[in-house]
Design goal:
Elements lengths: L2 H7 L11 H10 L4 E2 H12 L5 H13 L3 E5 L5 E5 L1 H18 L3 H12 L1
Antiparallel strand pairs: 1-3, 2-3
InterPro entries: Tscrpt_reg_PadR_N, WH-like_DNA-bd_sf, WH_DNA-bd_sf
Pfam family, one: PadR
Protein name: Transcriptional regulator, PadR-like family protein
Length: 119
């Protein structure tokens, strides 16, 4: 196999740094439990306070599936369920770590984060 083939045949999993905020929010929602598309849509609409278009949601879900961050399975002939993969879990954890490393600059901020975790 040539060097060019080995480079193009490699599958690269995107990390949270490679994702849009919208995609990161989808992963955050799926961190809680597997969901079907309309349930994800409702969660996003609740967060954004506005309607989320199907034409925005499903292509992003498909990209996350293609990237190996989300697994898609059939619940029935009309409904798909989406679940975070281990790589998706790692992407969420990596993003949280990155944000917390920047946010927690002193003990007062650390206490704010602890308070959030204890709610």
């Amino acid at each position: 196999m040539s060097e060019a083939q080995s480079v193009t045949d490699e599958v690269t999993t995107r990390t949270a740094a490679d994702l849009t905020a919208f995609q990161q929010n989808i992963l955050g929602i799926l961190s809680e439990e597997p969901m079907y598309g309309l349930a994800i849509k409702r969660e996003l609409e609740s967060y954004y306070g506005s309607e989320v278009n199907h034409g925005r949601l499903y292509p992003n879900l498909d990209d996350l599936v293609e990237d190996g961050l989300v697994e898609k399975s059939e619940l029935d002939k009309r409904t798909n369920q989406y679940e975070l993969t281990e790589a998706g879990h790692d992407a969420v954890l990596g993003q949280l770590e990155w944000v917390l490393d920047r946010f927690v600059t002193d003990e007062a901020r650390a206490d704010e984060v602890r308070a959030l975790l204890n709610e």
